[in-house]
Description:
The protein is an alpha+beta fold. It is built from 14 helices and 35 strands.
Amino acid sequence: MRRDDLRNIAIIAHVDHGKTTLVDGMMKQGGIFRSNEKVQERIMDNIDLERERGITIMAKNTSVKYNGVKINIVDTPGHADFGGEVERTLKMVDGVLLLVDASEGPLPQTRFVLKKALELKLPPVLVINKIDRSDARIQAVLNEVYDLFIDLDATEEQLEFPVIYTNAKQGYAKLNMDDDSNNLKPLFEMIMKTIPSPAGEGDGILQLLVTNIDYDDYIGRLAIGRIFSGTVKVGDHVSMAKGDGEVSRTKVTSLFTFHGLERIEAKEASAGDIIALAGIEGINIGDTITDAEYPRPLPGIKVDEPTISIVFSVNTSPFSGREGRYVTSRKLRERLEKELLYNVSIKVDFDDTDSFKVMGRGELQLAILMEMMRREGYELSVAMPETITKTINGVLHEPMELLVIDVPEEYVGVVAQQVGIRKGRMQKMQNNGYGRVRLEFRIPSRGLIGFRSQFLTDTRGTGLLNHLYDGYESWQGPLSKRQTGALVADRQGISTTYALFHLQPRGILFIRENTPVFEGMIIGENSRENDLDVNVTKEKKLTNMRAANADDALQLIPPRIMSLEQAIEFIKEDELVEVTPESIRLRKKILEANKRR
C-alpha cells in the first residue's frame, strides 16, 4: 500500500553546493512563511557554529505542502567528517535530490553520498545548481556525473535519472536550459513524478526506526524517526527494541509531525510519516519502537568506522579553572556520554579515569565537538590527532584518503611536492581550461594532519582541498613531522613588549604583549628544529639615563593567532592544546624545563 499524500526526500551534495539554500527556496515557495515575514538566509542552519562557518553540521528535517501533498525534506551535511549524519538520515527517505555545482562538478563527498544512496536503492534526481555562474560548464558536469554513476556500478534503472537545472539563490528551476522559469515549480513537479510515495501497511505491526534524538525543555527527550509499518497514537503502549536485543515496554505521551520549522502536535501517525515521539526514556539512535505485544525490530543503523582519534583529558595547566565552569573528569565524561547519544559516527574509549580517547571521521568533526564544549563552559586539554590502525592477516594497515585538490596552474608543482612528501600518490590530473587544475591523490590519513594550513600558505589562499575516506592499505612508512621546534616560556608572568621584540628574530610568535603565560606554555614557533626556553616576561631595566616610555618606540610584528583547528594541526606528540571558553593555548605535556629533557 502506498500513500499518495506524502513524499520523503533527502538533499545530498558536497559541501557548499547549495543544499541549505535550495531548502530555503522550497520553504519560501511552499507557503511556509507569510508574504510579509522577514526570513534570514540558510534558515535550516540554526546552530551558531553552522551560521559562522557556513556549513551544515547536523542533519535536520522540515516539510512543505505542494498541491495538497506533504513533502518531508531532510537537509544533510556536505562535509566528509559529518558523513554519519548522512548515513542515518538516508534511512528515513524514499528518494534523493543529488545536488552538483555547475562549475565544480562532482567532488569527493558527492561520491560518498551518492554511493550510500545507490546502496539503499534510492531513486536520484540530479539537480545541477548555480547555473548562473560565469564559469559554469553544464554539459561537462553532466558527463562527469554519468561517469560517477558508472564508476559506482549503478544499475540501468539508476542510470536513467532525470536532470533539472536550478539557481537556488534566485529560486528558479528549469527542465531545459532554454526554458523560461522564475520559480521552483518544475522541481516540485519532478519530485512528485520521480520520488515514489512511501510504502507500508497502515494496519500492520508498528515499526518505527529512530534516526535522530532531540530535546525539549518541557517534555524531555524526543525520538525522531520514520514509521515503516503500522500506526501509532498518543497514549499507546509500545516496545522499545535496543540494538543489543533488549526489549522494554513504554508509553507514548506526545506525538509531533513537522511543518516548516515547527513541530505540530498530532493524535496519530501511520506508515510513511516522519514524526517525533515523547515519553520514551533511554531511547537511542538506531533503536526501534514497535508493537508492545508482538515486537518486531528493524535492522540498526550501520555507519563507517572512525579513522582518527584524539585524547581528551582534564586541563592540568597552572591556569586551569580560571575561565571554565566544568573542569573535572566527571563532567568531561558526562558530556562525552551525552554526545554519543546524538552522534552515531563518534566512539569514545572510557577505560582511563582522567583522559578519554575520542574517535571520529576527521579533525574537523572533533574540532567542532571541542568548539561546542568550550562554548558550553568546558575546559580540557587535547593531544595530537592519531590515525586508527588495524592489523589484517598479520600486516599493519592504516586508513587512506582520496584527496582532491583544485589549484591555479602555477601552484601545481609546489602542491604535488608537498603531497609527495606526505606519501601521496597522484591518480589523476585534469585541466579544465580556466587556468585551474584538478589533481586527485591517494594519501594516508595521517599525511593530512597539519596539511591544510601548509596548503593554504603554499597556494596563497587560492587552493581548494577536499578529502574522503578511501579504505585501508598497508602501512606506508614513517612520515616527516613538523620540521621546526617551539619557543617555550620558562617562567610564569605577563609577556612584555621588550621581551617579545627581542624574540622576534628567533621565529614566529603566537602571543601579544600583556598576555599571561606559565612555564611550559608554547609562545611561538622556533625557526630551527630544537625547542628553545625563553623569558617573555623580561622588562627593560630603568636607570637615570633610560626612561620607561622609550619602549613605546618598539614595533612588534603581528603574532599568528591560532584557531582551534590550526592549533591541533600544529602540535607534536609531546605537546597539548589547552581549550577553555576564552582561550586556546599550546603547551608542553611536561611543563618543567628540567624534567622535559
